[in-house]
């Protein structure tokens, strides 16, 4: 099982292929497998790295009481150093997209490209979204009582009743993914959810960011995520937005071939043209 010591923890990672490096950062309460369709496909021309964020998967938890995006950023920076990756492209989804934003604005000279998928950003959080984010906090005691898997399934069911079956995308892909890795502990779930709840107050400043950026969101994404995609595009100089037809919140799993081809086009035309 490949691990590397990063910022006080043993981080699980998988490395494929040869060429310019791409580091994929997964969403909350899943693991590195979320990005495997793209990491495997793109390894024909690139070095692809997937890893388990602190608290998740085979990296597992740590003794730290509270997680923050500053901590996740330093974990990622230590991973990039340990694997001797030169100016990787960062590709993050949901929570991973927030980590990627925080990294890119902390270390803008250490990356060559940025992909933000189905994610959100500070600012322009209206009361319905703030209410929804507040509900996230209520999942912690419920998860302690019933398990986070049951709570998530209940939330997915609620979304489908309100917004239609398309709202959950290919949720079975997420369930299959969970069956392949270790179960997250409730304490780690709580720490990750508390970090996620801090997104509206997270500090990011894109003024120093000059790398090409691709912003992806699913056709059936929540309205505020679509609005935040436009906000990100307005704040990042060299950004392009693509809607994923048929996709929901995990658009890379809902429509893997479409997302893979968009990534391949982005890398070939905007990050590494003429390679």
Find the CATH topology: Rossmann fold
| Poorly predicted tracts of residues | none
One letter per element, helices H and strands E, the order comes to EEEHEHEHEHHHHEHEHH
CATH H-level superfamily title: Alpha/Beta hydrolase fold, catalytic domain
Assigned CATH class: Alpha Beta
Quick check: average pLDDT? 91
How many structural domains are formed by the residues?
1
Which percent range fits the helix content?
Answer: 40-55%
Quick one: overall form?
A: globular
Termini separation (Å)?
Answer: 33 Å
Output the strand order for the largest sheet.
1-2-4-3-5-6-7-8
| Major pleated sheet | 8 strands, mixed
Query: What is the number of helical segments per DSSP (H or I, 4+ residues)?
Result: 10
Question: Into which percentage range does the β-strand content fall?
Answer: 15-25%
CATH architecture annotation name: 3-Layer(aba) Sandwich
Radius of gyration: 17 Å
Describe this structure in words.
The protein is an alpha/beta fold. The chain has a single domain (3-271), classed as Rossmann fold, CATH 3.40.50.1820. It contains 10 helices and 8 strands. An 8-stranded mixed beta sheet has the order 1-2-4-3-5-6-7-8, sandwiched between helices. 44% of the residues are buried.
């Amino acid at each position: 099982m490949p691990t590397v010591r990063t910022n006080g923890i043993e981080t699980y990672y998988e490395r494929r292929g040869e060429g310019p490096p791409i580091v994929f950062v997964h969403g909350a309460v899943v693991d590195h497998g979320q990005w495997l369709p793209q990491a495997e496909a793109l390894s024909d021309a690139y070095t692809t790295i997937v890893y388990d964020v602190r608290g998740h998967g085979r990296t597992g938890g740590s003794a730290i009481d509270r997680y923050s995006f500053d901590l996740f950023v330093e974990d990622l920076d230590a991973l990039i150093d340990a694997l001797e990756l030169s100016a990787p492209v960062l590709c993050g989804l949901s929570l991973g997209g927030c980590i990627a934003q925080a990294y890119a604005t902390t270390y803008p000279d250490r990356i060559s490209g940025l992909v933000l998928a189905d994610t959100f950003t500070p600012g322009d959080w209206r009361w319905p979204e703030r209410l929804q984010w507040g509900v996230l906090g209520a999942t912690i005691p419920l998860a302690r009582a019933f398990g986070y898997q049951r709570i998530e399934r209940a939330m997915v069911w609620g979304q489908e009743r309100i917004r239609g079956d398309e709202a959950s995308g290919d949720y079975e892909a997420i369930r299959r993914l969970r069956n392949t890795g270790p179960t997250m502990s409730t304490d780690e779930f709580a720490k990750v959810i508390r970090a996620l709840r801090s997104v509206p107050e997270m500090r990011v400043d894109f003024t120093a960011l000059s790398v090409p950026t691709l912003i992806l969101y699913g056709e059936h994404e929540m309205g505020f995520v679509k609005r935040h995609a436009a906000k990100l595009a307005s704040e990042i100089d060299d950004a392009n937005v693509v809607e994923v037809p048929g996709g929901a919140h995990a658009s890379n799993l809902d429509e893997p071939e479409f997302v893979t081809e968009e990534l391949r086009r982005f890398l070939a035309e905007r990050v590494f043209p003429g390679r």
